[in-house]
Write a structure and sequence with these properties.
This protein folds into two domains: 2-66, no CATH class; 72-240, no CATH class. It has nine helices and seven strands. The chain has helices spanning 2-15, 23-30, 37-69, 87-98, 145-165, 189-199, 204-212, 216-225, 227-240; strands at 73-75, 77-79, 82-84, 103-110, 115-123, 128-135, 169-171. It has 242 residues and is an alpha+beta fold. It has a three-stranded antiparallel sheet. A two-stranded parallel ribbon has the order 1-7. The protein has a two-stranded antiparallel ribbon with strand order 2-3.
Length: 242
Amino acid sequence: MPDKEEVTVAEVVEETAVATVDAGLLERLASNPDVDVDKFERLIALRNSEQEREAEAAFVRAFVKLQADLPEIGKRGKSHQNMYAKMEDIQRALKPVLEPHGFVLNYFLDTEGHVKVTARLSHAEGHYQETSFTTKPDDSGKKNDIQAQGSAQSYAARYATLALLNLTTHDMDDDGAGSQETPEAPAGYEDWLMDMELLAEEGTKRLHETWKVSNPEFRRHLTTHNPAGWNAIKDAARKAGA
């Protein structure tokens, strides 16, 4: 009987090399003490590989549909003589589009000797793709160390997001309604908003502590003109824990 079981497992390994490994079969084999361990582990590896391929395929299908719904982002930010899409506008445009397609966008920060922001687009089926952008602290003007760090984080996050999602931007008409829908954010607001999004990963307590001592103008602008963004930040903090 043991020999017969081992042969059966070997046959399963060969026959399922290009087929679906049934989860029920794995459970039955796992409970059988006569199953060859090495061959069983090969089945597990095959099953994991199969699930990864399925998740990646689901990601690609959803991403193709997402691309058709992604909006162009208006350039409302100004740096020297250049116009750029502000992180606030990018987030506002993306949040209502990502969720219906099963996506969520997260950021990871690395400040060891530089400022590196990684944007990760994760799909509900488990697969994710990410893009990183690395820069130096922005010490232009009269920024202190904290402002220089925050400015670089916002800059890196913008470019990582644009590249990851293949977003397009466009110039705003001076007299267009789009540029008048939301008042210009206070100076330093974008850097603060990026900090708040990163702090959300540390939990609700840390987020609220920082919120209480934040610039009242920043808080007012966020809750008045981007309440969905603030709710998303609070939701992320709740998911991260206390």
